[in-house]
Amino acid sequence: MEMTAVDERRMTELFENLEVPEGVTIELLRGEIVMMAGPDLVHNRIVRSVALQLPSDRWEWLMTQDIDILSEQSEPVPDLVVLGSDAGPESGRLLPSEVVTMLVEVVSKNSVDRDYGIKRSIYAAGKVPAYLIIDPIVAHCVLLTEPVGGGDEADYTVQRITKFGDPVPLDLLGFELDTSEFKTLPGVRPHRRP
């Protein structure tokens, strides 16, 4: 069933006025509202490690920041948002995807399909230059660059997989990400993504 423009607008309004319990993340992904429970310690420590490694003279990082991807009826909340230190607006709830250099998602047990699937497509449609998926289930990082296309057809043309322990070359940001401290999630069944 196709959603009409009215339904989509109503969905966005509903989304923006929802009262969300403490510790729950809520995202709008192509008109669908998705809720996630609070993340695992493993997840949060990986996010912290990435943030601390970013060269702070050139890059700003944000957490729990809603991204506005206008063309997409989407307001995702990536685990980490990286932008040039003078790139973003001064204020506002939403950060336009055009000013973002890299988005980072750390995979959790319930986010595998979203992180590798719809978010890959949404972030490419939003022309985000780099999307880094850090996966503590299968102990690898997937760096996606060079977004092309729009809507459901949008994707990244370059994909580079790096095992935990090896450095991830983040050329766009001018440094290599050290993954040697990244831990894995115990007792989660491995998957076959990307």
UniProtKB/TrEMBL annotation:
InterPro entries: Nuclease_put_TT1808, Restrct_endonuc-II-like, Uma2
Domain Putative restriction endonuclease: 13-179
Name of a matching Pfam family: Uma2
Entry GO MF terms: endonuclease activity
Domain of life: Bacteria
UniProt keyword terms in alphabetical order: Endonuclease, Hydrolase, Nuclease
Keyword Hydrolase found: yes
Protein name according to UniProt: Uma2 family endonuclease
Provenance organism: Streptomyces sioyaensis
Lineage: Bacteria, Bacillati, Actinomycetota, Actinomycetes, Kitasatosporales
